[in-house]
Records
---
Amino acid sequence: RCWVAAVLVAACRAEATEPHCCWAGAGTTLFEGPEATGKSQADWRRGLLEWRERTIRESGITGAEPRPPWALSTYVQPQVHLWDRYLYNETSHEFTVGVFLQDLRDRYGGVDSVLLWATYPNLGIDARNQWDMWRALPGGLEAVKNLTSQFHEAGVRVLWGYNPFDQGLREEGEPHWTTLARLLKETGGDGFNGDTMYLVYKEFIDAGEAIGHPIVGEAEGGGYPSPYGRERDSTWAPADWNFLGWGYYHAGNSDGITNKFWREPGVDRAKWLDSRGRRQTHVCDRWA
C-alpha cells in the first residue's frame, strides 16, 4: 500500500505487479487518415468498416446499454476545483454557481457539464480518504447537494472526480463503486470521471443501478483498450457502457508541454465503433 501525496502525477501502485500508467495518444485513440496510410479513400474506408465489424464480433459488443441523452450532448466540460474563486466565495463562505457559470458564458458561451474535483491538493496529507474530502467541504454533503441542484437548474450536469489510487487511507468498509454510487445519489450527482483509469468497470455502473440511481462513468484513459493495464483493460467489450471518455489526441510533444498533432485529422476509434453515434469523447488538452 502507499500514501498519495498531492505532488504525485501518476497512479500510485499498491503492489509491484500492479499495472503502470501509460496514457494513450493519437496512436491508440485515432485511426490515421488515408493520406498518412498511403491508401485510396475507398480502401481506407473499407478497412475501417472491416475493423468495426471484426471488433464488434470478437468483443461481443451488443450496443444494448442505454445511453442517457444528456451524456451524448455534453460537448463542453471543464474540470473544476471546488476552491475556484468564481465557484466559492471565501468571504461569504458560499458556493456561487451563478457567478461561475456567467463567467464561462461571457468567455466562451457556457458549458454542458462540470467535472468537480475535491481531492487535490489535500488527498494523502492525513488518513482521510477521498470521500472525506467531499464531506469536509464547507457545508458538507448538504452543500454539495445544493451546489449540484443549482447546476441542474442551469441545465448543467455534474460529475465527480474519482481517484482509484486512494489506497491505504481510511476504509469505508465497502468497495469504491458502492460508496461512489451512494454519495452521488445522496447529492444528486450524475456520474464520475475515473482518474488514471483506462476504462470504467461495469461494477460502477451496476452499483448505481442497484440503488435506483443510474450514473455514467468517464475514464481518463477514454475507454480505449490498453496493453498496459489489467487483462480486463485490453478489450473493447466495455464500450457498451463506456460511452463517455477523455480523448488524448496528441502525437507527442515538442518541449514536455506543447502537444503536437497530426496534420491530417484522424478518426476516433471509440466513436467509429458505434455506428449510431452514441459515443461522446471529450478531447483533453491540459494546457489549453
---
Amino acid sequence: MIRVACAILAASLAVILGILLSVDLSPGSVSTTPGSGAMFDAIADHYDTTNKVMSLGSDVSWRVELVKALNLQEGDTVLDLATGTAEVAIALAQTDARPRVVGIDPSAKMLQHGREKVVKAGLAGQGRGTVELFQGDAQHLHGMSSKSFDKTCISFGIRNVPDRAAALEEMARVTRPGGIVAVLEFSEPHEGFFAPLARIFVKSVVPRIGAFMSGGARAEYVHLQNSIKDFPLPAAFRNEMISAGFIDVTSRMIHPGGVYLYTSAVP
C-alpha cells in the first residue's frame, strides 16, 4: 500500500510539474507600473488563494510570527502598510489585545476584497478590535500625524515600494517613540542547506504558479519574482532601516524559502 501511495504521489507531482513547466513565462508587458496599486488590481481576485499555494500553506505561520513580534498591548493602535486583502490587519485585530488597526494599500481592488473580509469577520468600525482600510502610499502617509501609532508593520510590501528610504522614514515618523516597527519580507535565499533549491523554487516555480492560478498574469508574477531577487540581503536592509532612524534593528530567517522578519524600535 505504501509503495502504491508513493507511486500515486510521484505521478501526481509529475503531472503538476508538467503543467507548471508548460506555463508560458516569455516576456510579457505589465500594462501598469510594476509593483503599483494598479498592477495588484490585476491579480487581486486570486491573490489570497495563489499566496497559499505558492507558500505551501506557510503564510499563516509567517503572519503569526509577525504579530508576536509586535508585542501588542491593550489600547494599541497599529498601522499595517501594504495591507492588501487585510490578512495581517485581521490577524492583529483578533488578538487578545484587540488593537485598533489601520490598513493602508495602493490597490483599490485588494482593499475591496479586504473590506469584505473585515465585515465578514465582524471587525468593521472604529475603536478596539476593529480594522479600517484606506487607499494610500507608504512613501507619503498624508493625513497621518507624527507619533500617532503604537506599532507599525509591513508584510511582503516594502520590496515593491519604489523609494524604500522614504517609506521607512514615514514609518518612523508616524510611530511613537519606543514603538515597535516590524517588516516581513522575502530575500533570495542564501542561508542553509536548502538555499539552492529554494532559489530554484522562487525563480522557476513561484512565477509559474502565480501565472497559472491567476489566469495568465505572467508579467505581474515575473515582476514579483524579480523583486525578490533584487531585494537587499538582510544585512544590507538592516542598514537601510538604521539609516531611516530605527534602533535595535534585528532580523531572523523564519522560513528556509528566504522569509525574513525584521524588528526595530523608534528612538
---
Amino acid sequence: SLDEAAAPAEGEHPKASDKKRLRQEAHGYWRGRRLRAGDTLLLECPDSWVQAHRSNGCFAVLSRVKPNSPASKNKDAPKSEKDEDEEFKFIMSIIALLVLLVLSAMDIVNLFPLAITIAYVLISIGCITLGQAWRSISYRLVLTIACSFGPGAALTNTDVSTVIGAGLVELKVLGNFGFLLCIYLITSALSCLVSNSATVVAFYSVLRVVTIDGLSSKQIMIVMMLGASSAFATPIGYQTNLMVIGRGGYVFGDFLALGGGLTVVVGCCVSAAALVMLDLSLIHI
C-alpha cells in the first residue's frame, strides 16, 4: 500500500522518509492526469537538466528558481545583510526609472545624457555589472535602425517621397480625424510585414513633406510612430506574435480577425488623442 511504501525503512532518517512519502503522494496525484498547455510545474532536478531541456519544444518557458527568490524564502526569517542589499538595489532601480521617465517627459534633461548618467549610477552601486550593461545593448537593433536610413534617403533623393506624399494629401477630404486614422492604419499594415524601425524611417521621409491645414507635424508624427508599433494583425509582425502562435494553437486568420479589429479601435483612440491632447498643447514634444 501507499502507507507501507511511505513508511521509513529500518535505519532510514526521518527526513528521508518524509521526502519518500511526498514523492509517493505526488506520484499518486499525477497518476491518470494529463498535462495541458499553460500548466506550471515546479520540478526538483539538477541545474544541468535545465540547460539540457531549455530548447525542448515541450516547454514554453524553462528557468531555475533561485535560492534567494521569493518562492524559496521563508518570510518569517530575519533579513540578512545580503537581503537588505538586494532590497536597496531594487529601490534604487525603481527610483532611477522614475527619474528617467519624469525628467525626460518634462523635457528638463536630454534623454541620451540622462540615460548614460543613470546607467553609470546603477553600475556604481552594483545594481548591474559593466558586462551586463554592455550586453544589454542590442547592436542588431542599432545596426537595423542605422541601415534603415539608407532607403529613407533614397526615397527623398528620387522624389518618390514627394509623389507618395502628394497622394496622401488627397486623404484630407476625410477630415483631420480621418486623415490621421488612415496614416495610422497604413503604417500599422506596413509594420505587420516589415520591422517597425524600417516603417518609421520610410514614412518619416514621406510625411515630413506633407502639409495639412489644421494639423501640425507633431500630430502626424505621433500617429505614425504609434501605428508603426501596432503590428497586431499578422503573426510575423513582431517576435512575441511568433512566440505564442504555436503554443496557443493559433492560425494566421486568428491574428487577422482579432488584431485587425484591435488595430482599428486603437487607431481611433490614437487619432482622437492626437487631435485633442496635442491641439490643446497638453503634451510637449
---
Amino acid sequence: MLFPDSSFADPFWHELPETFWQEIAQVHKVSRLGVMGKTVSNGFRQPTVTLLYGKHGWTEHIDNHVRYSFDVTRTMFSSGNITEKLRVSKFDCTDQVVVDLYAGIGYYTLPYLVHTKARHVHACEWNPDAVTALRKGLAINKVSDRCTVYEGDNSKAGLENIADRINLGLLPTSRDGWSVACIALKPTGGFLHIHDSLNSKGQDRLLAEKNYTLQTISEIKQILADVKPNQAEWNVTALHLERVKSYAPHITHIVLDLHCVCNPLEDE
C-alpha cells in the first residue's frame, strides 16, 4: 500500500517501532507499506518511494488477465492507460510480428502476447529496472518464448524489415522513434500505432486532430520514402485516432493508427 507524499511527514512517525507498521499492514491486509514521493526526472521517470514496512518493493498487478510485476521503488505503473491496453488486447495479430519500441514493464508487450495471438514481439526498453520487470512479466505470463527483449537505445537494436505492426507508446511524444519504426516495417508495409500529446489550446479539438493526422501521414510517407531503399510509392491511411486520456488543460494523450502499404513502381 502506498500513501501520498504528504503522509507521515512529522518526525514522530519515524520514531515508531516496526511493530506499529506491521499492525497497520495487517489491518489493511498488505505485506508492505510505503510513501510515494516525486518522480525523478532522469529520463526513466523513476519514482521515489520510502518503504515504511517490508523488505522490498516488488508487487504484482493484474489487468484484463495480464499479470504485471514491478518494483514500486524503481519503476512506474501507469494505470491511466488501461483503456488503450484493453483496445490493444482486442487486435487480431494472428501470426504477426510486433515491435514495441518503448516496452517499459510490458504495458503493451504483454497484452500483445497474451491476447492478440501475435507470433512474436520484439520489445525495446532502455531502463534497466523496467527491463528486469518486463522479463519477470514475460515469465509469469508464460510468454517468454515469444518475445525478444532489446535493452538500450532502440535505434541500435538492428530491427529492419521484420514488423507487421509497431507500437510507439512514448509520451509526451514518440516522434524520435518514427524513423526507427519505418525501418523496422516489412518492405510490404504494416501498421503503426503512434502515441502523442495533442495540444488543442485555442482551436477546435476535432480540427486539431484532423490537422495532426494529415501532418503525421505526410511525415510518415516522407520517412518511408527516405529509409526504404526500393523504389516504391507508399500509401499511408489513417484508420483511427484514439483519445486515451487528458492529462493537462487542452492536452490529450492520443494514439493514431496508421496503415502503411508499399506499392512497387512498375518498370517503364
